[in-house]
Design brief:
- About 40% of the residues are buried.
- The protein is mainly alpha-helical.
- It is globular and about 50 Å long.
- It has helices at about 1-25, 35-60, 65-90, 100-125, 130-140, 145-160, 165-190, 195-220.
Length: about 230
């Protein structure tokens, strides 16, 4: 039953993303964002996967070198997510404090990863390989999902840190944050190419360490205040 497999894959991709979203939204319980805008940002992140898929197919045709291809894929995904955040949330009046950029960036990233994870699960689930599907879902829950989250949050942090600065400062922060996000995402992609089980474990430990750093960044952006003249 192909339709039932699709439903299972979507649930397996979306439910864990909502778990992570609930976790990160707790960082902004003092002044929460409108639920409709959070939901809209999540859906926009889901939809943006379509753009990434077409772009990645085009890159795959052009970039024959594996390392270059994985790096360009990481760059494309971060640019797509950043653009979605800018269009859907950052230009609204609800982006009214430094932490908001991080919240919206993470929400879009989780929407993106939810659909991406579902697509990765379709293969094993449609072939009746439930155990492999569960293993794939678990690995992406602690791996790729966190990479998307942390990478996008780095951009959000940069924008939040420059919240009270002028236009040039915000542009510089966005560019530097995007560069850092691409570097982080590309590093993860390159680390899993032909990697052993030990290498994979080391990579995931590194990603979880990045999550701890992300929690620290949340605390830092909460302290950003306008400069006194």
């Amino acid at each position: 039953m192909p339709s039932l497999v699709l439903v299972y894959a979507l649930l397996a991709g979306i439910v864990p993303a909502f778990v992570w979203l609930a976790f990160w939204l707790r960082e902004d319980i003092g002044h929460p964002e409108p639920r409709w805008l959070i939901f809209g940002s999540f859906l926009a992140g889901c939809a943006s996967v379509v753009i990434a898929i077409f772009g990645e197919k085009w890159i795959a045709d052009l970039a024959r070198n594996e390392a270059l291809r994985y790096t360009l894929w990481a760059a494309l995904e971060e640019i797509v997510k950043f653009t979605v955040v800018g269009v859907v949330a950052l230009r609204t009046r609800w982006n009214d404090e430094p932490i908001d950029a991080m919240i919206y960036a993470i929400t879009v990233a989780l929407g993106f990863s939810a659909v991406e994870n579902a697509l990765f699960l379709l293969g094993p689930l449609s072939g009746g390989e439930i155990a492999q599907g569960l293993a794939t879902g678990g690995m992406r829950f602690v791996g790729a999902t966190l990479v998307h989250t942390v990478s996008s949050a780095v951009i959000g942090f940069a924008l939040g840190f420059a919240y009270y600065r002028g236009t040039f400062g915000k542009i510089a922060a966005g560019v530097s944050g995007l560069g850092a996000a691409i570097a982080l995402h590309a590093s993860f992609n390159l680390s899993i190419i032909n990697s052993s089980a030990t290498d994979m474990l080391r990579t995931f430990v590194w990603i979880w360490a990045a999550v701890v750093i992300l929690i620290v960044l949340f605390e830092e952006v909460k302290t950003v205040r306008p400069k006194l003249l």
